[in-house]
Input
Amino acid sequence: MRFGARYFPLLAAVSLIAVGLKAQSAKPDHHEIDLALTYTAQYSNLVSTPTFWQQGGAVELSTQTLHGFGAAANITGTHAKNAADSGVGLDMVTATFGPRYTWYRPSTTSHSLAIFGQGLIGESHGFNSYFPSANGALTDYNSFALQVGGGIDLGLSRHFAVRAVQADWLRTQFPNSTTNVQNSLRLSAGIVLRVP
Output
């Protein structure tokens, strides 16, 4: 099964669970499903130095189901033409899923505020690059991924918000002939479509 295909059933399951919980809840609590589309810049390292920037975008589906608690699923793709001054590029697709907590402040006008924090795990696929390993040089590799962070959404209307900022720490474990660990800072901003 291809890397991306294994995560589509997971995203569908999250959507169905969120809709079911929303329909069953009788409490006066804030519930919604959000679809965020963001531009993403990732400050990365393959080895300890030098660091480099990757550019790309992300799609994130999230839900609030009970007192601010919910779940989020994130798929991000990034690209660097010259990773760590190596002369070799790097493309990455990262798919993560996990819990999210959102503090939501409604407004009497159309401008709401949502601040969220999350901890997601999944997999990152690096390709069109160079990964030194015990089995020789590889051009693509699948790695465990841990994503921890949060962000701020500014509501402009009932169904539309702006993701002013999202900042996440991303840990991956691609082979690099040293620690085989990478710690990256991921910054995102974009738009959010809401289904209250």
Remarks:
- The chain has one domain: 5-195.
- Residues 5-195 form a domain with the Porin fold (CATH 2.40.160.20).
- Helices lie at 8-24.
- Strands lie at 32-45, 51-66, 69-80, 90-105, 113-127, 131-133, 136-138, 141-155, 160-172, 182-195.
